[in-house]
Each structure stands twice: as C-alpha cells, then as structure tokens.
C-alpha cells in the first residue's frame, strides 16, 4: 500500500491511497463467504456456492463492493498512522479507481489537529482580586444564617413587605382562564420577586380573605409572553420573626458558645473561600493569557459541531430541567438570538482552543495521569453530577468515557504547570502564593497541581441561566 498526504489547509488534509489488488484478497475472500451465507442457488448447498457462480448470478461488482467496504477502514487507518496524523471526526472517502485484479485507489479528506507551537510562557503575569473580608461581609454572612433560623407566625393584619402569604392564583388571557393558569395554596414571600411582576403591589395591604386583580406578562406556560389578567386571593398572612443576635443564637446555629466566637469563625471561613476563589481566578486569567500567546486554527466542521452540541445541551438539558425554552432564556438574559449565537460561537472557539493548547502542553511536558488522580477526579465529577461515585463510574465505563476523563485530568495538570510558572499578583501589587489552599468546605486542595476544572470548564461550558427564575416562572 502507498499513501500520500496533501495539506489542504492547516486543519484539513487529503490522503491518496493506492492498494495493490493482492492486498484486497483477504477482504475478497470474506466477501464471498458472507454472500455465501446470505443467498441460495438451486443445486448448491448454502455456504458451498463456488465463487464463479456467485459472480455469474450476482455480479463481480457486488463482491468487489462488499470487499472494498470491508477493507477501507483498515487501509485508511494504516495511511493515517503512516502519515502520523491526528484526525478529527470521520473522513470523506472517495474511491477514484477500482481495477479488478489490478488496483484500488481512494482519497480521504479529514480534519486534523493543527500543529501548535507552544511559546515560552514563563513571562505570563496576571492580576487577581485581593483577599479582603470586611465587617460588612461578616454581618451579611451572619444575617443569612439568621434568616435560616427565622420562624413564621400567623397574623391578623394587612400583609406587608417581608411577610409570607398563602395565595390562590387564576390567570386569564382574552377573558378565558388558562388550563395551566390556576394555582392554589402557593406560599410567597412579599418582595422576593420570585413570582409575577405586579404581585407584590397586589397583595401588599391585603388581609386573609382579601383579593385583588392585576395585569402581568406571563413568563412561562402555554401563554408565555402574553399579557394576562391575574386574580389573587390571600388565604393566610404570616409574619417572619428573626432570632435575636446573641450568645443563645450562636449556640443554636453553631458549635460555638458566644456570638463573638461565631463571628470569628465566619471570618475564617470567608477568608478561606475568598482565597480559593482567588486561586480559581488566577487559573482562569493565566489560561486566557496563554491562549493569547498561541495561534490556534480551528476546523470549521468541528467548530459547528461544538456549537450545535452546546446549544442542544442548553436547550434540552439545562433549560428543560427548569421548565424553560430558549426564547424565555433569551428574554431572561436580555439577549437577541444573534447575540446568543455570537456568544455561543465565541465560547465554542475558546473551548476548542483550550483543549488543543493544553493537549499540546501535555505532550510537551510529558505529563501522565495516575490511578489516584483519576479516582479523585471521578469523585469530584460524581459529586457535581448528583450521582454516587459507583453510579458515575459505571456510566463512564459503559459510555466509553474513561479516555475523556483522563484527558480532563491531564489538561488540568498542564494548566497547573503554566500557573506555577506565571507571576500572580493581587490588585494591591502583592505577590499571591498559590500553594495549598482550602476550599469553602475546608478541604485542602493543591491549587496548582489539581486538575483545573474551574478554569477549563468555564471555557468549555455555556453560561448557566439565572437560577432565581427556575421555580416560579416554570
């Protein structure tokens, strides 16, 4: 077999392959055997039909076609290996010549990973936010904890902001009650903004048994985007009571005996969280700086497939789980379809460039992935997916995704190498030490050597919808 490689552009090649006919003989024999098992000819037992009879009855061309189809994948693979290519996706194959008992010639066009030159990255310098925890930050943290321990008490008075009301809703469009426009026993906190526009004004001032009508644009359901006349009836008004900020509260809400001790622990936790966020920010900025240094051509077909995949995942997984569609998502984000498509393309391009560059770094630095590293990564991915480690591992193995996980770990290690070589300073000009930090749970993490999922996934995933819209608007 002879093969030649023609570079069509930096990301696409054409292979021309010539195969002597004798190399087709094993596939030709297999083709006769296969046809023998599929057809019947009077006077011959099944599987015992001579080749010349098959040629007469069904044509030599049918046998050659079967043989070539069976042999092409092997010849293509041999040509790829001979040319030391890294193909992306399936090739476009064209049989240019097939002479019986003489020669088979075919071409195969396929996208390939571009050749990437990694420059010296030791001069990368990035600036990140400094770690500062103010008294206001601690007050906010303690207040959030206080909110969790709030109690509610039914009251016989008009509802006010901050109160919890139990309400019944009925929505009409053009005077007709919508099939999905009736809800009873809905609990709502006035001022939270979690339901329809205009509801806060409608229920404020109502006592139990009171009702009101207001107009609002529906943000979900069968009449999404239409103006509706909404009737609301209050069945109960409850006041929220927050616990006093004292030592008794500290003992109720934490393992500490005094409020002062609890506030000190809150400061420690906030500092730890901000340091971890600072490390993640450093990784993201170093990655961006690295990508600016490297020219990465992207195959158009691969880019379009990546865009389509991201869009499908957003529409059919993320948004579907929230009861939203793409139109409502764009409305929430205040974006046009054109802006969304442009943003999606930019994210896809960055994701592909990130993978290409980090994969090249893995090869350049000769990085490998150990079993322990892979297991730790699998545990983190399982936790983020909401599955048990055993369930996640089984799904990964059954889906043939182990190489994908290995690649994620290796790319994280490659980015860590660049982060270690970079100079990181905060916005006050102080050098940032990115040695072992603790995340918000208190678990120690080797920031510069653990897989940098936060940075690489930010480049590879579409933006999440605003969570506050999820329940009420669906």
TrEMBL record:
EC number assigned by the record: 5.2.1.8
Feature: compositional bias, Basic and acidic residues: 465-474
Molecular function in Gene Ontology: peptidyl-prolyl cis-trans isomerase activity; protein folding chaperone; ribosome binding
PPIase FKBP-type domain residues: 162-209
Biased composition (Low complexity): 444-457
Annotated segments matching region Disordered: 427-474
PROSITE patterns in the cross-refs: FKBP_PPIASE (PS50059)
A Pfam entry, by short name: Trigger_N
Annotated compartments: Cytoplasm
Gene Ontology BP term (one): cell division
One Gene Ontology cellular component annotation held by this UniProt entry: cytoplasm
Enzyme class: isomerase
Keywords carried by this UniProt record: Cell cycle, Cell division, Chaperone, Cytoplasm, Isomerase, Rotamase
UniProt-listed PANTHER family: TRIGGER FACTOR CHAPERONE AND PEPTIDYL-PROLYL CIS/TRANS ISOMERASE (PTHR30560), TRIGGER FACTOR-LIKE PROTEIN TIG, CHLOROPLASTIC (PTHR30560:SF3)
Entry's family note: Belongs to the FKBP-type PPIase family. Tig subfamily.
Record's protein name: Trigger factor
Lineage: Bacteria, Bacillati, Actinomycetota, Actinomycetes, Kitasatosporales
Gene from which this protein is expressed: tig
């Amino acid at each position: 077999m002879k093969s030649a490689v023609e570079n069509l552009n930096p990301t696409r090649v054409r292979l021309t392959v010539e195969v002597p006919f004798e190399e087709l003989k094993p596939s030709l024999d297999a083709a006769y055997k296969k046809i023998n098992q599929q057809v019947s000819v009077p006077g011959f037992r099944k599987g015992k039909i001579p080749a010349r009879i098959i040629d007469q009855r069904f044509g030599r061309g049918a046998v050659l076609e079967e043989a070539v189809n069976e042999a092409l994948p092997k010849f293509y693979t041999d040509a790829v290996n001979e040319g030391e290519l890294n193909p992306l996706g399936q090739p476009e194959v064209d049989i240019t010549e097939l002479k019986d008992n003489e020669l088979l010639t075919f071409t195969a066009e396929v996208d390939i990973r571009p050749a990437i030159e990694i420059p010296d990255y030791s001069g990368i310098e990035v600036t990140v936010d400094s770690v500062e925890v103010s008294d206001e930050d601690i007050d906010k943290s303690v207040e959030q904890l206080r909110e969790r321990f709030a109690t509610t008490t039914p009251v016989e008075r008009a509802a006010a902001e901050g109160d919890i009301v139990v309400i019944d809703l009925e929505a009409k469009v053009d005077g007709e009650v919508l099939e999905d426009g009736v809800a009873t026993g809905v609990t709502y906190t006035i001022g939270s903004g979690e339901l329809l526009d205009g509801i806060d004004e409608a229920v404020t001032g109502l006592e139990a048994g009171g009702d009101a009508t207001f107009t609002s644009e529906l943000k979900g359901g069968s009449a999404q985007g239409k103006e509706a006349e909404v009737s609301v009836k209050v069945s109960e008004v409850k006041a929220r009571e927050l616990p006093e900020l004292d030592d008794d509260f500290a003992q109720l809400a934490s393992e500490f005996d005094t409020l002062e001790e609890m506030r000190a622990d809150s400061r420690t936790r906030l500092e730890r969280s901000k340091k971890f966020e600072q490390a993640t920010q450093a990784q993201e900025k170093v990655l961006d700086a690295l990508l600016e240094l490297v020219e990465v051509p992207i195959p158009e077909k691969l880019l379009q497939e990546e865009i389509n995949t991201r869009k499908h995942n957003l529409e059919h997984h993320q948004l579907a789980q929230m009861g939203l569609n793409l139109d409502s998502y764009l409305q929430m984000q205040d974006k046009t379809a054109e802006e969304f498509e442009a943003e999606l393309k930019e994210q896809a391009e960055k994701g592909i460039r990130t993978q290409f560059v980090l994969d090249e770094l893995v090869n350049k630095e000769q990085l490998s992935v150990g079993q322990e590293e892979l297991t730790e990564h699998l545990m983190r991915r399982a936790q983020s997916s909401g599955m048990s480690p055993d369930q996640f591992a089984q799904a990964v193995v059954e889906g043939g995704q182990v190489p994908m996980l290995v690649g994620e770990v290796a790319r994280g290690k490659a980015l860590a190498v660049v982060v270690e070589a970079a100079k990181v300073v905060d916005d006050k000009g102080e050098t940032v030490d990115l040695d072992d930090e603790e995340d918000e749970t208190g678990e120690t993490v080797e920031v510069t050597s653990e897989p940098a999922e936060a940075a690489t996934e930010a480049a590879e995933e579409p933006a999440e919808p605003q969570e506050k819209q999820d329940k009420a608007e669906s």
